[in-house]
């Protein structure tokens, strides 16, 4: 299925959009989707994207409040009013990384726990605090938090066994926590005309281990993982005025996985 969004009236032209982790797998997809809508995209990441695009890369660690304040200063100096913040960056684990074999709860390292929560939760909270405050002063803005199907259900560890991998507890906590941050922010800044929502996407197919994909597909009513472009329309919808009466909610897009 080829989903083209170019002619859809999201009215996101010239909107100033921050995407954290915009150099990553999903982030890159979202950066390009906003660029196609002719938005001005600022990618806040530790590393530049390997794929060239017209976004502005701002090398920043989202866990460092002072660095984020410098980014805000840059926007204020350039008189750029932010319209949209997407909290997308988080630590993700690649089962191929042999160093990460000890992810069982019994052996889980406190350093990993702290690092994961610092990036996934503290980073999103700091971006919300700093860029959200700026948007609240302008009395207009949208914040979108990227949670996961594992923000609403527990991981089924059986599907990772073929890779000798355990989905870490920190991932569940971060993704559930983002849904809490979403509700808090939506309620807190509602009167300032800030909407805040989350999406809970299911796993995106990215040539993962065949056995893993087979086992995962059995848990999904639609019988397959998502394609990398299948969240674009949902994100555009939640970031545009088309969703003007939606705030504080989490839209689950998981092929039905969480309903069974
Ligand atoms: N890929 C999936 O199947 C999937 C499914 C559900 C939810 N998600 C969520 O989507 C989001 C993106 O996932 P992805 O697969 O693109 O991950 P990814 O690992 O490819 O990208 C994450 C990006 O975040 C950046 N980052 C990490 N720490 C940072 C920091 N301290 N400051 C700034 N940037 C930092 C990384 O450099 C990387 O570019 C994550 O929140 C993930 O939980 C992904």
Structure description:
- This protein is of the alpha/beta class.
- The chain has one domain (16-259): Rossmann fold, CATH 3.40.50.720.
- The protein is built from 6 helices and 7 strands.
- A 7-stranded parallel sheet has the order 3-2-1-4-5-6-7, with helices on both faces.
- Strand 1, helix 1 and strand 2 (40-45) form a beta-alpha-beta unit.
- Helix 2 (65-77) runs parallel beside helix 3 and helix 3 (110-137) packs parallel to helix 4.
- The longest helix has 28 residues, at 110-137.
- The two termini are 26 Å apart.
- 38% of the residues are buried.
- The model has no long low-confidence stretch (mean pLDDT 95).
- It binds nicotinamide-adenine-dinucleotide.
> Number of domains in the coordinates?
1
- The second-level CATH architecture is 3-Layer(aba) Sandwich
Q: How helical, in percent, are the residues?
A: 25-40%
CATH class: Alpha Beta
The number of E-state strands comes to 7
Strand order within the widest beta sheet: 3-2-1-4-5-6-7
Bound compounds: nicotinamide-adenine-dinucleotide
Number of helices: 6
List its traits.
35% helix, 260 residues, single chain, binds nicotinamide-adenine-dinucleotide, alpha/beta, Rossmann fold
């Amino acid at each position: 299925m080829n989903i083209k969004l170019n002619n859809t009236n999201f009215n996101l032209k010239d909107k100033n959009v921050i995407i954290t982790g915009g150099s990553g797998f999903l982030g890159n997809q979202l950066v390009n989707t906003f660029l196609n809508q002719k938005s001005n995209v600022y990618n806040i990441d530790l590393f530049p994207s390997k794929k060239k695009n017209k976004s502005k890369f701002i090398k920043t660690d989202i866990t460092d409040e002072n660095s984020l304040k410098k980014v805000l200063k840059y926007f204020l100096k350039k008189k750029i009013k932010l319209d949209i913040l997407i909290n997308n960056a988080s630590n993700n684990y690649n089962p191929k990384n042999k160093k990460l074999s000890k992810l069982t709860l019994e052996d889980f390292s406190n350093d990993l726990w702290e690092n994961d929560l610092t990036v996934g939760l503290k980073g999103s909270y700091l971006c919300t605090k700093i860029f959200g405050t700026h948007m609240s002063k302008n009395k207009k803005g949208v914040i979108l938090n990227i949670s996961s199907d594992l923000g609403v259900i527990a991981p089924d560890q059986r599907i990772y066994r073929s890779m000798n991998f355990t989905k870490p507890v920190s991932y569940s906590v971060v993704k559930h926590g983002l849904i809490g941050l979403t509700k808090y922010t939506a309620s807190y800044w509602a009167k300032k005309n800030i909407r805040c929502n989350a999406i809970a996407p299911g796993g995106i197919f990215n040539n993962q281990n065949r056995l893993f994909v087979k086992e995962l597909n059995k848990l999904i009513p639609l019988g397959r993982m998502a394609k990398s472009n299948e969240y674009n329309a949902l994100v555009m919808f939640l970031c545009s005025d088309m969703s003007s009466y939606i705030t504080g909610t989490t839209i689950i897009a998981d092929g039905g996985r969480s309903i069974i």
